[in-house]
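hey team, just a heads up i'm posting the complex here instead of the shared drive bc the drive is being weird again. everything in one block, sequence lines first with there labels, then the predicted structure for the whole assembly after. its two chains so it's a bit long, scroll down
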Amino acid sequence: EVQLVESGGGLVQPGGSLRLSCAASGFTISSYWVHWVRQAPGKGLVWVSRVNGVDSSTRYTDSVKGRFTISRDNAKNTLYLEMNSLRAEDTGVYHCARGRPQGGYYGMDVWGQGTTVTVSS
Amino acid sequence: DIVMTQSPVSLPVTPGEPASISCRSSQSLLYSDGYHYLDWYLQRPGQSPQLLIYLASNRASGVPDRFSGSGSGTDFTLKISRVEAEDVGVYYCMQALQAPRTFGQGTKVEIK
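-- predicted structure starts here --
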């Protein structure tokens, strides 16, 4: 079964750090773009970052540039999001989602259940 | 960044009746390959988002054929031919033309 399972969320103080993980099964993440999307409580979806499956290039939304780092471990078939200098506005549920494969575009067709990050003192 | 605007924000629907959601982008989503990079997602209450439509008009695997997507340039529409109770939730359009990907604010569909 094709699946993504996030972990690593929790309560952290402003200025603190967290590392989120997204374990993939049923497919190889190195063959796909993979994204992080977050959702603040009661709010809409916001794209955070992605890593390209082929060349590992990365992109970020402006509000997290310089603070968040997306990476993957192909051997573990796992995606990561290293989050530093966390702010209250980073609070929310973080989902990983599978994007385009090496060829073609088929939307973000697999989503994890999400992991909750709460930034508060 | 490309701004995505959905309407309406809230949509009360009657089971068995059709429903339609509009999505407008601040610039054309047409890429040089001839495709419009516009997706539709549904987030049911308490669940993760799920893909409904990609490239403006292609239904994702397993999506019922009562869902259809259309549009071009900057104007797109998601239609539900006959609403069912399981269709309640928040619908989002998202542009996949360029980074950062951007979502519409969402349309909450609820049963009357």
